[in-house]
User: What shape does this take?
Amino acid sequence: MKIKICYFAKIREQLDVSEEQLIFPDACDNTERLLEFLQARGERWSQVFSSDQKVLKAVNHEIVSEKCALNDGDEVAFFPPVTGG
Amino acid sequence: MKIKICYFAKIREQLDVSEEQLIFPDACDNTERLLEFLQARGERWSQVFSSDQKVLKAVNHEIVSEKCALNDGDEVAFFPPVTGG
Amino acid sequence: MIHIQHDDFDAGIEIESLRSIGSHIGAVVSFVGSVREFSDVRELIALELEHYPKMTQKSLESIAAEAKSRWDVEAVKIIHRVGRLLPSDRIVFVGIASRHRSEAFLACEFVIDVLKTQAPFWKKECLSSGDQWVDAKQSDDKKSLRWEK
Amino acid sequence: MIHIQHDDFDAGIEIESLRSIGSHIGAVVSFVGSVREFSDVRELIALELEHYPKMTQKSLESIAAEAKSRWDVEAVKIIHRVGRLLPSDRIVFVGIASRHRSEAFLACEFVIDVLKTQAPFWKKECLSSGDQWVDAKQSDDKKSLRWEK
Assistant: This one.
């Protein structure tokens, strides 16, 4: 399945990517699997996604805190705690 | 001693007076005595000052809830609960 | 920064003036109160606002000073209109400038709550059926009592 | 009534627009947030506000809807600026119109508190010493948690 991933703010700068399309095995159908997949990309990725740094995620523009199912065409975003207002 | 008395809003209309200068025996030197004095003026006055109607008083532009000493030159005001804002 | 006036005011100008105190001001919280029309039973033609001129300024200054002593706020502005007002007219402005927002919210609500039970203003409604003094609301007493220490 | 924009806004116009909803509106409470300059250690040159365009509108709409479902308020207006801002610039406006004031105060503080922890905006400070992402504040988390049911 195809997933769009967006990165924002500090996370975007650390990974040096703002968005990407990912073809993802159908069996890997939740955010936990996606995180494992991204962490396996190398040191920089595993640091961002497994360090003490807090990373929030949104699936289809809603923040989700728990493991969340993913479907073809979903948009996932990773970003640091928000600081607007 | 000389006391200035001001009446506001509904109280002013009920008594049909907005302010007056009162020469008051020196012995009657507190707000309680002043109230007794005013109540003794007649039915309209005793009704306003002894009925269920709540009357607030201010001495020299500060609301006072208890009996308060009066001195020559003081300004006393009587008015209903405030309704500004 | 207390004004008791017949004239109308401009909340936007007041907020800008509070913001312009300095670049350490992070928050301006404001309250604008308007003359409400009573849609149901009676028709409001106008509102007459009487006050006690010699006491009003002092009373509002003391409320503003109390707000500043309780919370870390930089400025308190109060404008209260008097005289004849029409439905939807502005009556009162309370604006607070502070570094952080929580203090501004608290101080602003404090000022308007206490003003409603302490400041010497009285409203008379001019209704199609005749004139009538507005009764003080118990709910306002309760709101004001919350702030007693 | 949600606007995410580069352009500045005028709080006075927003308050008037909230008041003009009808003569049943007795209270308008508003919050204006400004870019604070840090006077002590570091010098703030500018603030860059990044957001997640596809999510921001939806997120603010959901906060506004939640405020309206919790309190009896007539209208919620939110304006949040994005892009490059300078010290003292306006960042955010939250305005609430309601019949009575208590609800407007609660809803206004709720919106800004929840916005600060839920809406996808990120601030980067451009300092004389270099750029730096602003860290989320624990105090903001606490303020937001107060509103959890």
